[in-house]
Amino acid sequence: MRSGESFAVSWRYFDFWLLGAVALLVIFGVTMIRSAVAGNIELVALNLVQRQIIFAVAGFTIALIVAAIDYRLWDSISRPMYIGTVLLLAVLVIVGSALYGSARWFDTGVILIQPSEIAKIVLILTLADFFTQNMEKMQRLDWVARSFLFTMGITVWILLQPNLSTSIVMVVLWFAMLWASGLKLKHLALFIGGGVLAPLVSFPFLVDYQQRRVLNFLFPDPNARHGDIYNIQQALISIGSGGLLGQGYGHGTQVQLRFLKVRWSDFIFSAMAQEFGFVGIVLVLAVLAFVILRCLRGARLATDTFGALICYGVATMIAFQAIVNIGVNLNLMPATGLTLPFVSYGGSSLLSCLIGVGLVESVILRHRALEF
């Protein structure tokens, strides 16, 4: 079969259901961001809606390009990408505060780029390659330790920004992909114990605002008017006042009167709940769950371990961020900076999720490759 014919045939298996569901979430997210910033002169001046649309268009374009590229080509350049990402993050930590006022973003003068978001995709690709190449060795703890050190080579620079929430995402990706690679059950207890002890050991090393978030979650002050407790209180009020069908788009009192803070990003779930009610958020979460299941379907269809691990890693990234974001809004866990995938404002976060979807599509497109 000629290469042109192979390309035409492969696009028959493109998962339009996955892309359509993602597009629906992104469109809804832009709509919610517009409602969240309406009437706020300072936020309107920042052009948040327009910026999100630009990132969405760029993200979908890149996703289609990534889907067209054979995902198996990424394993040959995964190590250079890993090294380049580590160097980029190191430079950001070292000079970021002095030049950009923050060690999390590069300010291009037009938009802010957060390299740690792209680092998630790089970690998924490099871990997929590492585990594929050393699958039979993952039964040994020394090789499990090597994979952890490999992960921390990137994660430590994110932790130094400091960006604890994204660092946790990186470790979760490592464990999920390690589990998918065949972690022995007898080793599971060791990791569970380590997971329980890690927060206790790491707490003294957290920066002040991170410690306050944990303490405010464990020992809330009912009289607090500012800070994380206030934000969580307003989030819960927003969710509760939405009722079954919500107060209507653009009519949420906590949203439009600006009681709900960071309503366009961290607490967009609460804004959704107030304006669209329980029915609305259930529908949005159903679409999000559908996206995750389609990514897992890609893992099942993959013709090789490398492709399956890529899909599994992307599904884990989207699912974990969604669970944490919703958990924070419901006061089930301490406040973090993780966004609701595809919905919250955040160009770099949206871009990383769309690139992840493009990788999944690339795997699905080629799941029949061995038949031709």
Number of separate helices? 15
Structural domain tally:
1
Average predicted confidence as pLDDT: 84
Helix content: over 70%
Strand content: under 5%
* Strand/helix succession: HHHHHEEHHHHHHHHHH
Q: Give Rg in angstroms.
A: 21 Å
End-to-end C-alpha gap: 8 Å
Outline:
The protein is an all-alpha fold and 372 residues long.
What does this structure look like?
There is one protein chain. The chain has helices at residues 3-10, 16-37, 41-45, 48-68, 74-100, 115-133, 141-159, 164-180, 185-202, 208-218, 227-242, 253-256, 268-301, 305-329, 347-365; strands at 106-107, 112-113. It is mainly alpha-helical and 372 residues long. It has one domain.
How are the elements arranged and paired?
Elements (H helix, E strand, L loop, with lengths): L2 H8 L5 H22 L3 H5 L2 H21 L5 H27 L5 E2 L4 E2 L1 H19 L7 H19 L4 H17 L4 H18 L5 H11 L8 H16 L10 H4 L11 H34 L3 H25 L17 H19 L7
Antiparallel strand pairs: 1-2
Annotation keywords:
1% strand, 372 residues, disordered N terminus, two-stranded antiparallel sheet, mainly alpha
